[in-house]
Amino acid sequence: MDDPTATVLALLGLAGLAAGFVDAVVGGGGLIQLPALLLGMPSAPPVQILATNKVAAISGTTVSAATYYRRIRPDPRTFLPLMLFAFAGSAAGAAVASQIPRSAFEPIVLVALVVVGAYVLLKPELGEQTALRFSGHRHLVAAMGTGLAIGFYDGALGPGTGSFFVITLVGLMGYSFLEASAKAKLANWATNLAAILVFAPQGAIVWKVALVMAVCNIVGGYLGARTAVARGARFVRVFFIVVVSAFIVRIGGDVFGLWT
């Protein structure tokens, strides 16, 4: 691929900042970073795009996960199995990522976002407070299944992973949006790490771009996590709906050729 110019690097850094903030609040920062990388690195193969995005993403996720952990103190009986199985699923997904054509990214993500956005919008009481739907063994199985399935998606494709973790923890398991965001950050950190461990030996990471976006993602992640904790679950829900709606319009326009 061609070496990115200073202007391209600056714009990618700005995308990383915005992605870090959005990802820390509701997840889905990859839906900002990945399109930016596709535009900024037009000659790069999909595996390089995914790998470079992961390095930037894990940087911001580390900061936001630490911020959530200090302030929310999520239950380790949920987030530890969630992280473990998310790690395993992501490693498996990353191993097959190079087999997925670039054209398959956006239609898959668009369908998932429409389903998720409609579900949250039509259930206004969803995620206002924690009301767990499972206990004991069933809760553990739900956490492990969530981690494995979404982890595989993150390793193979990636965009929207944090949002999918949040909505599954809220809709399936009964957590509030704020608690779900805290656990989603920890799980997303594990999926990013697993994917990097698979991608790095392949030489797929474009380090010059990755490091610029990583620094910006850290700043965005810190600001986003502090904002979410201060504003509470209601703010996170509203922000979630706004962000998902924007993603649907943006990606839907690409899929149906409205922006060409």
TrEMBL record:
**Chief localisation class:** membrane
Supply the alphabetized keyword list.
Cell membrane, Membrane, Transmembrane, Transmembrane helix, Transport
A Pfam family of the record is: TauE
Task: Extract the coiled-coil ranges from the record.
Answer: none
Question: Which positions, given as ranges, span the membrane?
Answer: 48-67, 79-98, 104-122, 159-178, 190-223, 235-259
Where it sits in the cell: the answer is: Cell membrane
Q: How does it sit in the membrane?
A: Multi-pass membrane protein
Q: Which family does it belong to?
A: Belongs to the 4-toluene sulfonate uptake permease (TSUP) (TC 2.A.102) family.
Q: What name does the UniProt record give this protein? A: Probable membrane transporter protein
User: Species name for this entry?
Assistant: Nocardioides mangrovi
Top-level taxonomy: Bacteria, Bacillati, Actinomycetota, Actinomycetes, Propionibacteriales
